[in-house]
């Protein structure tokens, strides 16, 4: 009957007018507002549909106990805004410095109400085109060869208003609560509705189903007033400091682990929730049993006629009755509004709560449909930060750049540098880039080698579609490329790993490949990897086997600027890959090379020969003399008048009087390489 009524409603609106936009965004949460910002800055035709009266409606309710677990680090000791975003997990990307989250809260773990205010201001101050109180209830396709992707997306809202879009961006997040059905599940309270007042749990015994941050958040709230709390879940607890995955249990919520391991009545159990059953006695107490005990039995006959586990095993762990059972099992994506024509299918295994998408964040079922934000986390689930604001703000920007190239012919942003700036460019990015840092192993900087004299630098490209780089970016890679990515050590992260063991860190450059903590890795390919090579890459490798690879040794301060430990090994690696000399030289050395070598180093060809060089000064001259790079002609005793063309006169004139300016260098590598 429902299908028949729905079909009739489609027929009724088939002739209705459609409001057209190039881009339709469903959801005005953080990712929806983020992509709206990029679309607006690019001058595109778009609209954002939001079912609530304000943006960020998820944060108006969740987390229930109002404390976010995304850090708000206001002080880093640095003024570099890009670097500071590495430790700001709440701000969205924009040009407006008023829209940094630190202006909305001073708490390290902010209150969720601050996020609601922030998102409201983000939408209003930037004048984003959000259509509130509009719930999209159905999405389907209309085939049309003239459309961008061979079809249009047709959307219908709760008032039967219809919309037509060339590209659909889904930013609804995961908001449908996960529910496990078993005998007696009607007695279970959901995280979304359970009381958050500790007084309501005073003197009670509580069982919590689940083992994520929402479960531990709930336990933390009532830990001091309950008789005891038991927590049961299918998998063992995963600690975020061991897995290096921010979605696992955070230290701020793990008080129950203390009370469990320090013998204070609370406890954790492992078991499949679908095997459980709950029986309620006459006093209202809830007894845990197993499903197979209830087979072929009438549960309404009363608890006395039902066999409980403790009847056969008198020390059964959950034999004590509970006053309340609370479900805290997280959320899943809402697939209900999408017509079969879109082929929006759930993922497999532990990714089934997310829709299936490609590494480019495009749906596997419908071209032109992209999934953003938390719902796109299947690309890097349990690996990186793509399910959280500090991760998907960068993946959303990457999707926008892909769309700009595909539909508007705007290539991926890039900068061309002389080859002499190769080392400096890499060092600069690995020390300040926030996208590489947060989306480690997922987003990478790409260096395209143009020829022997220049390179092209692309920032934060999804490595999962590296084989499609030329098509997706509009850039060519005919002469090979470098891929700069951040990685943890291969065997350092895991639920069963001891990440605090003695000698866990590596400090010497020759052992950099054994680094455990997050560190930069540079892959060199003589040609662009193929799709087949991407598919056959080694397990847990973000990229196929390269022609050469270099690890920059981990650093306790995450500051990779040490001349000997970081810069020199990197420069020599680059020189070996390119068969060239990437050192910087003083003018005197270039002058000498011009007479003694058949081929000048790139720095001399691009600087000295073109009458460019380092800006001369008395301090630079003294430094060069002390380093043994120049003779100290000031100590030479000349008798009589100095010839106008003497060496000292020309040298002094070069270093003091007629300095020729040059583009500033970020780092100066010692020209005299030991």
From TrEMBL:
| Chain positions covered by the region annotation Disordered | 636-655
Signal peptide start-end: 1-16
Q: Does the keyword Transferase apply?
A: no
A single GO cellular-component term from the record reads:
endoplasmic reticulum lumen
Pfam families found in the cross-reference section: Pyr_redox_3
The coenzyme or cofactor needed here is: FAD
Q: Spell out the subunit comment.
A: Interacts with SEL1L. May interact with OS9 and DNAJC10. Interacts with TXNDC16.
**UniProt-recorded name of the protein:** FAD-dependent oxidoreductase domain-containing protein 2
Q: Which organism is it from?
A: Cathartes aura
């Amino acid at each position: 009957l429902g299908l028949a009524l729905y079909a009739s409603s489609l027929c009724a609106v088939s002739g209705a007018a459609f409001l057209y936009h190039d881009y339709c965004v469903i959801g005005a949460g953080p990712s929806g507002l983020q992509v709206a910002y990029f679309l607006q800055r690019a001058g595109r035709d778009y609209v954002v549909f939001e079912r609530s009266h304000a943006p960020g409606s998820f944060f108006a309710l969740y987390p229930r106990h109002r404390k976010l677990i995304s850090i708000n680090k206001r002080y880093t000791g640095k003024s570099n805004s890009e670097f500071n975003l590495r430790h700001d997990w709440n701000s969205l990307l924009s040009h407006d410095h008023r829209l940094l989250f630190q202006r909305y809260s001073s708490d390290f773990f902010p209150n969720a109400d601050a996020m609601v205010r922030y998102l409201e201001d983000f939408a209003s101050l930037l004048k984003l085109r959000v259509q509130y109180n509009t719930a999209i209830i159905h999405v389907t396709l209309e085939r049309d060869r003239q459309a961008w992707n061979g079809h249009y997306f047709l959307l219908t809202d709760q008032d039967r208003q219809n919309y037509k879009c060339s590209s659909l961006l889904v930013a609804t997040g995961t908001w449908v609560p996960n529910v496990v059905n078993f005998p007696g599940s009607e007695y279970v309270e959901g995280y979304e509705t359970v009381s958050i007042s500790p007084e309501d749990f005073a003197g009670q015994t509580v069982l919590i189903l689940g083992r994520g941050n929402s479960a531990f958040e709930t336990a933390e709230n009532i830990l001091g007033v309950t008789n005891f709390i038991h927590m049961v879940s299918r998998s063992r607890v995963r600690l975020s400091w061991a897995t290096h995955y921010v979605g696992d249990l955070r230290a701020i919520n793990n008080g129950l682990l203390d009370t469990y391991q320090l013998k204070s009545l609370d406890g954790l159990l492992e078991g499949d929730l679908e095997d459980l059953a709950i029986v309620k006695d006459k006093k209202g107490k809830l007894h845990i049993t197993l499903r197979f005990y209830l087979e072929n039995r009438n549960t309404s006959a009363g608890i006395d006629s039902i066999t409980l586990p403790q009847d056969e095993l008198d020390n059964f762990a959950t034999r004590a009755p509970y006053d309340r059972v609370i479900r805290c099992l997280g959320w899943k994506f809402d697939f209900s509004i999408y017509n079969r024509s879109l082929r929006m299918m759930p993922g497999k295994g532990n990714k089934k709560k997310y829709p299936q998408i490609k590494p480019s964040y495009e749906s596997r079922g419908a071209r032109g449909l992209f999934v953003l934000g938390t719902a796109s986390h299947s690309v890097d689930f349990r690996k990186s930060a793509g399910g959280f604001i500090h991760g998907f703000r960068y993946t959303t920007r990457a999707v926008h750049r892909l769309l700009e190239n595909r539909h508007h012919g705007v290539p991926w942003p890039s900068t061309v540098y002389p080859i002499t700036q190769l080392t400096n460019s890499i060092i600069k990015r690995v020390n300040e880039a926030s996208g590489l840092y947060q989306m480690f192993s997922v987003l990478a900087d790409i260096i395209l080698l143009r020829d022997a004299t220049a390179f092209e630098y692309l920032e934060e490209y999804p490595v999962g579609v590296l084989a499609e780089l030329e098509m997706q970016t509009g850039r060519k890679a005919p002469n090979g490329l470098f891929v700069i990515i951040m990685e943890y050590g291969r065997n350092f992260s895991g639920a069963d790993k001891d990440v605090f063991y003695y000698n866990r860190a590596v400090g010497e450059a020759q052992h950099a490949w054994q680094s455990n903590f997050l560190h930069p890795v540079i892959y060199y390919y003589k040609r662009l990897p193929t799709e087949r090579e991407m598919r056959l890459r080694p397990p847990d490798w973000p990229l196929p086997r390269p022609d050469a690879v270099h690890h920059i040794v981990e650093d306790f301060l995450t500051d990779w600027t040490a001349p000997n430990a970081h810069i020199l090994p990197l420069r020599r690696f680059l020189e070996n890959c390119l068969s060239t000399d990437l050192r910087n030289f003083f003018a005197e050395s270039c002058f000498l090379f011009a007479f003694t070598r058949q081929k000048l180093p790139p720095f001399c060809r691009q600087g000295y020969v073109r009458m460019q060089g380092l800006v001369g000064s008395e301090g630079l001259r003294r430094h060069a003399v002390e380093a043994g790079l120049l003779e100290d002609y000031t100590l030479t005793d000349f008798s009589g008048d100095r010839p106008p063309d003497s060496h000292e006169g020309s040298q002094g004139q070069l270093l003091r009087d007629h300095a020729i300016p040059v583009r500033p260098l970020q780092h100066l590598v010692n020209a005299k390489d030991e």
